[in-house]
Design brief:
alpha+beta; Deoxyribonuclease I, Chain A; about 250 residues
C-alpha cells in the first residue's frame, strides 16, 4: 500500500483555505482502521507496513477473498482475528476484524444475518475501562438485493443495539453517498433510527473516470463529538482505494 497519507484530518476543516486541520494523536486515542482490501493474502505485508507507523487497536477488513482455513492461517503481528465471515459458495467477498492483543473482546455471532453477496457481516464487543464498544464490519456486493440487505441489517442491529453502548459501523455497502437516491435515503433512514450517522465526507474510491464514496463509517457523532477521520490513500495503476481510520480522543 504505497503513498500512505499519514495526515490526521479533523471532522472540521479550515474554511479559509479549504485545507484539513492537522492534529497528532495522543496516547489515549482509540483508533479503528477500515480497508476494503480486495484480497488480503497478497497484500498482508503491505498492510503490516502501513500499520507500523500508525498503530490501530482495531483493523476492519472487507473483501478479504479468503475461506475459513486461509483466514485463520493469516498472522498479523500483535493482532488476533476477532470475528469473520467467509464465503462458502462464491469467490471473493468476506469480512473480518482483527483486534490488538492487549484488548479484551468477545465475538458476536452474526452468521444468521449473513447471506453471500447480499450481506456479509461480523462484529465484536470491546470492554475498555468502563466503556462497551461494538465494532461492526459489513460488506454488500453491488449485485445484492437492496431490500433484502436493509431487512437483514435491521435485524442485525436490533440484535446488537443498546443505547448504553457505542457502535462503530465500518462498511462497504456499495451505496454511493455522493448520489442522493432511494438506496441512500433508505439506508440513512434505517441507520439514523439507531443514532448512526456517516462521518466520511471525502472520496473513497477512484477508478479511471469514476469517483465514488461507497466506503463509510457510521457512529453516533452527537454522542461522540471528539473524533478524527484519517483518509489514507492506497495507490494502484488505475484505482485508488481509501483506507479509513476513525479515532476517539
Amino acid at each position: 500500500m504505497n503513498n500512505i497519507m499519514n495526515n490526521y484530518i479533523r471532522k472540521d476543516h479550515d474554511q479559509t483555505d479549504n485545507k484539513p486541520i492537522l492534529n497528532k494523536r495522543n496516547k489515549n486515542t482509540f483508533t479503528v482502521f477500515h480497508q476494503n482490501i480486495c484480497g488480503l493474502l497478497n497484500k498482508k505485508e503491505e498492510l503490516l507496513n502501513s500499520l507500523t507507523k500508525n498503530s490501530q487497536q482495531i483493523i476492519c477488513i472487507s473483501e478479504h477473498y479468503l475461506n475459513d482455513e486461509e483466514l485463520e492461517g493469516i498472522t498479523l503481528h500483535s493482532y488476533t482475528l476477532g470475528a469473520k465471515f467467509c464465503r462458502q459458495m462464491h469467490k471473493c467477498g468476506g469480512v473480518c476484524i482483527f483486534v490488538q492483543n492487549n484488548i479484551y473482546y468477545t465475538a458476536i455471532d452474526m452468521d444468521r444475518y449473513c447471506n453471500e453477496k447480499e450481506i456479509e457481516i461480523c462484529a465484536i464487543k470491546l470492554h475498555i475501562s468502563l466503556h462497551t464498544i461494538i465494532i461492526i464490519t459489513v460488506y454488500r456486493s453491488p449485485t445484492g438485493n437492496i431490500d433484502y440487505f436493509l431487512n437483514n441489517l435491521e435485524e442485525a442491529l436490533n440484535h446488537i443495539y443498546n443505547n448504553t453502548m457505542d457502535i462503530i459501523l465500518c462498511e462497504d455497502f456499495n451505496i454511493n453517498y455522493l448520489i442522493d437516491n432511494r438506496d441512500k435515503q433508505a439506508l440513512n433512514s434505517l441507520l439514523t433510527s439507531y443514532s448512526l450517522y456517516s462521518i466520511i465526507d471525502f472520496l473513497t474510491r477512484i477508478f479511471n473516470n469514476s469517483q465514488t464514496m461507497i466506503d463509510n463509517i457510521f457512529i453516533n457523532k452527537f454522542k461522540n463529538e471528539n473524533y478524527l477521520v484519517f483518509p489514507r490513500s492506497t495507490a494502484y495503476p488505475t484505482m485508488m482505494l481509501r483506507s479509513l481510520a476513525y479515532s476517539i480522543l
